[in-house]
Amino acid sequence: MALDLQPPDSSKRVKVYELRDNDWFDRGTGFCTGQMLDEGPQIYVQSEDEPNRVLLKTQISKDDGYQKQQETLIVWTERNGTDMALSFQEADGCAVIWDFVNSAQQQLLSLAPAVGCLPRDVADDALSDDLESYQSIVLPAPNLANLGEIEQIVRAASMTQAGRDALSKFIIRDEYIAKLVPLVETAEDLESLADLHCLCNIMKSLILLNDNTIIETVVADQIILGVVGALEYDPEFPTHKANHRQYLADQTRYKEVVPIKDPLIRRKIRSTWRLQYLKDVVLARILDDPTFSVLNSLIFFNQMEIVNHIQSNAQFLRELFSVFDPRNADAKRKDDAVQFLQQCAAIAKNLQAPSRAQLFANFISHGLFAVIAFAVKHPNPAMRTTGIDILVALLDHDPVMMRGYMLKAVNEKKTPLTDTLIDLLHAETDLGVKTQLADAIKILLDPQIPLQDPLARAGPDYFKIRSSNLLSDAFVQQHFDESSKRLFQPLKHLANRATLNDLTFQEVTLHSHLVDILTFFVRQHLFRTRNAIHSESLAPRVAQLLTAPQKHLKLVALKFFRTLTSLQDTFYQALMTHNNTFGLLLDIVYDTMPRDNLLNSACLELFEFIKRENIKPFILHIVEKYREKLENITYVDTFQNLIIRYEQMQGYGAEADSVLFSQDDSTPRRMPLNGQRWQGVKDIDPSEEDYFNGSDEEDDWTQENRTVLAAGAPNGSSALSKPLVDYPDDDDDEDAMDIKPEDDESEEKQTDESSAENPKTPPTQTAQTPPLERLSEKRRREEDDDDDELAKLTTGPKRRNSVSSTQGSGLLNRKKPLSIGPVGSGEKGASILGSVTAGTAPKRIAINLGPANKHTTDNDSCATITPNPEESNEKENREGNEGEDEA
Amino acid sequence: MSDLDRAIEQLRACRLIPESQVRELCYKARELLIEEGNVVSVDAPVTICGDIHGQFHDLMELFRVGGDVPDTNYLFMGDFVDRGFYSLESFLLLLCLKVRYPDRITLIRGNHESRQITTVYGFYDECIRKYGSANVWRYCCEVFDYLALGAIVLGASSELEPTGPPIVNETQSSMPLDDDELETEVLNSRGEVTMSTYRPRNRSSSDSSDTSRNISPPRDISAAPGQTAGAPLRAGAPGTGASSDGNGSATTTRTGAVLCVHGGLSPLIDSVDKIRLIDRKQEVPHEGAMCDLLWSDPDEIEGWGLSPRGAGFLFGGDIVKQFNHLNGLSLVARAHQLVMEGYKEMFDGGIVTVWSAPNYCYRCGNVAAILELGEDTSNGGTIARSNGEYGRSNGVLGSNAATTVVSPGRRYRVFEAAAQDTRGMPAKKPVADYFL
């Protein structure tokens, strides 16, 4: 096939994007040329950094798949279904390539002798006949008399893909929308509702043609008001008229802190706002999936350019941050600037990690932290919220970086952000702000941040930070301890209170946040938190809260002890057996029984867990100390069963333990209620085994490490129950228990005492622990991805949630269900198959689910699939991926 | 007029209450919900409703069709938020009503009452849009954590008081014999009977299975008259003695309890009492009993199956039958799945899906339904406790073999989306100001 085509003579700098999981993935930057090869015309992009790498090589086909968006974008769908985009640095470059693509397509079309000649066309284009007939769609010049006719033609053409294509072409070529717009006013003047309804239907159909160029036309300055004007008269709501025009015409909605001078960017800001309004308000009810994603991509690319413009504009940034100069008295302007930054941060959330990193780095170097400090101390709670929103956006983006900055401040003897936040948390009266502060402190103090999306972070930088972070371990510990001391001060002061009946509302809230944070720390960082809990003797204080009259406060305290229980760590076990904790817990049971309520259920769940997991030290302690109390609780059998367990233990000597437990193997204990029903016993993977085998001299630590790994969510989502079950007949553990107790604990059982030792020797411990901690934490990080459901639940999504996203862009949002859906199902699949190792299984199974999904969702589950653009996109997308993987 | 009444009035008009009031409301609701068990006991009469999904105007229509609070007792089976454009108004109104009339309205948790899900499906964005920050979302999510996981309806009557003659011809309804009692009735939104089924009053006939009940719902209530939509017109063929027992006069009959959950059953939960052992105050987990209750679906399979939703399970008729039998239940009512007819009974009437969001997502074209269970007054209003305390200490397999469980009389009210005139065009609230 010989084309007479002149390829562009120079290459154009361009970014290549690929749509993956509904997110535009940056394949890299390079130089784009058009090429004429034997097999036909091609677009070719060569990497800028590694000239040998080809970023893109795609055949131009005659199918009408290419679209030019704005000045600098070319978007199309590859033959395998992948959506691609080229974002040019210069509008000129874009135009050159666009011309090349266009002329190539035209020639290809003219060359194609007859429809159906190419086998592919026959195969995938059953509409080729229609194509012929529709190619000549022409609408009459609109006037009030022929609107009905036009509406019919448009509707008919919209029925088929070919018709839609042909119609779109005509509309664009003929600038037809501009011709329709004046009719709106005419019809309004004539008060001709029928005509207005017609116009509304036509506009709707044209927008739903789902063509980028048409949608861009619609939001253009001269057109938009006419279009939404027509859309105000929806025939489905004949007695209503919307007031879109009033909203969109209101210029004052656009706030400018520092004027943006570039007219192109100003235009983009305007059209992004209009697109969002179209998406959320005007078209909210009628949007179909493709149009929804077209709107979202347009918004995404606009925002990307706007943000890029802002951050590359040093003059602008200087002006922006100078607003916060203390000498500047314009308070309103400062507030606006904070809100401006928050919007930037919210938009940045949708960007890809590298551009986001760049933006934040730029902001930080201009003094973003000072702005946050200004905002969080603002007298207006709404501004405090905004300030923390910005902070949380930063934390979400890169907690490691944030902690780096914070530690740097400590090192330089400046007041670190954490201290400011802690003081604010103690003093804050607005409950919303207080919650946000608590969340932020959690993340900032979190000594070991689990990887959230390692892919999103640029590799080398990330590891650099991480390793420097590891080096300063002792320092981190010290800072953590000091901050904890400051943070939990109010909790400590509870010791001086005779009664908790006079807690004020603010105190109750504060304490529940503090205990919540403490619970979080314990769960995430068993070892680090020990010092804090021990030196400040926090456990008795939390136990004290079990007696508070506020039930929700009791619950928070209960959750803390439930978490300690699930850790199965001797140190924490000792804490619980010492402070009459179980006595207080049983008091709650007494207070609430036999009524069936939340507090009662939560208590029962804890004792059930102890029974189910057969936590020996607890069973011994509870039954010996509180036997009478237990015997009096008869409305459930949990407590009687605890006594039975105890008696079984007493009946056999230490050697008989193994017999006892092997007997138990046949009882339901091996199949705990929540844990293992389907998955069977999960194999420890070989590396894990090596790890445990390799560190002989640290046996008791290893044991603890293992229990850390095994400890799952309080409510039984523990996937790794096996180590727990092994625990009693584990030889190593016996050794650990043989350590000679200190005398004052004589009534306690051995296990308790060996653990009770730990808190007594913190200084020597810190000396030797750091390397061990690193090991264990390294393991934990590896485990996080697979096993730590709870960490996923509490850290990942939750934190993401706390950042505001004012525009609710589906691009980002649609990314999330993917992580819920397929991953979740994958895990379930993995656990059901049992033998599949956790590492690879989820992904494969998630993919396998695709078709299965299709089958089962036909009727009933259309609740989840059909109606929702997001979900069906998700599905499509999943199937798309599948195809890609196979290909 | 108290603040609460004023708030209710305002919300009924689809106008939001200030953030400070939301906070206060959520705190009050929390105090109330903390006292509720994981499975709330509810006495008949009660009207059971399925998913609402922020379709405020349709919720108003529901109250119009089903009767207003507090005149009618309601039980909402979760999924108040997401998808629709008025999640806040809908949920806050229900919460206000809960706080105002705690014994008249019961709210249980759906899978959408979760932080993770609401960030994806609209509620989070709606809060940001309408209140400018995520605070209200946080307050609401806190309340979600306290919502009960299920409810059990006690003391429902096995027989319905007939509403009136059916308007549709007899092809959709069976004519009662003198002796028969009215078991199910389907009414349209004007209160006209479109279908009814009967079962024989005399439990005397054969020894056939005591669990088989053959009430088929009309698959499509909009089916043209003449098309026999509800095929088996009678409760079983004459003589099969559906819902009867063969043990003669020594046995007792009672209406079994109705378990209401959002999703369905869990392989980890073999008795209702097990649900009590869950610490429910947490984000909906990704697996485990609590997750299953909110995520599972019934399906035409044997035993348990993998759910395409990625959470919860599919469960078959055998599971339902066994669970109902062991727990003395006659029916499981659940929501969670769109059904075009508004309700769908499965597995010989052992489980019913109730869906209360008409024209779901403003485009699905389905009708919605609510399920009314009447009060059993035959024992002078004494409720035969059939669960809760039932079988608690002597295990679930007590000596109840001689007792027959009869399903409650069920009245479905089917309704369509609120008339367009009664509401504005549904849309999200646009952002007030913008910088970028």
From TrEMBL, chain A:
Composition bias, Low complexity: 763-773
Cellular compartments annotated: Nucleus
SUPFAM superfamilies: ARM repeat, PH domain-like
Molecular function GO labels: protein phosphatase activator activity
GO CC, any one term: protein phosphatase 4 complex
Taxonomy, superkingdom: Eukaryota
Region (Disordered): 663-887
Ranges of compositional bias, category Basic and acidic residues: 872-881
Domain (Serine/threonine-protein phosphatase 4 regulatory subunit 3-like central) ranges: 149-648
GO biological process, one term: DNA damage response
Main location: nucleus
PP4R3 EVH1-like domain residues: 12-110
Residue stretches of biased makeup (Acidic residues): 686-702, 727-747
Designated name of the protein: Serine/threonine-protein phosphatase 4 regulatory subunit 3-like central domain-containing protein
Organism: Penicillium chermesinum
Automatic annotation (TrEMBL), chain B:
Catalytic residues (positions): H112
Keyword terms of this UniProt record: Hydrolase, Manganese, Metal-binding
Record-listed E.C. numbers: 3.1.3.16
Composition bias type Low complexity, residue spans: 203-217
Entry coiled-coil feature ranges: none
Reaction catalysed by this enzyme: O-phospho-L-threonyl-[protein] + H2O = L-threonyl-[protein] + phosphate
UniProt key word Transcription: no
Domain Serine/threonine specific protein phosphatases: 108-113
Composition bias type Polar residues, residue spans: 241-251
Disordered: region residues: 189-251
EC class of the enzyme, as a word: hydrolase
GO molecular function, one term: protein serine/threonine phosphatase activity
Signal peptide: none
Top-level taxon of the source organism: Eukaryota
Database matches in InterPro entries: Calcineurin-like_PHP, Metallo-depent_PP-like, PPA2-like, Ser/Thr-sp_prot-phosphatase
UniProt-listed PROSITE patterns: SER_THR_PHOSPHATASE
UniProt key word Zinc: no
Record-stated family: Belongs to the PPP phosphatase family.
Protein known as: Serine/threonine-protein phosphatase
Organism of derivation: Penicillium chermesinum
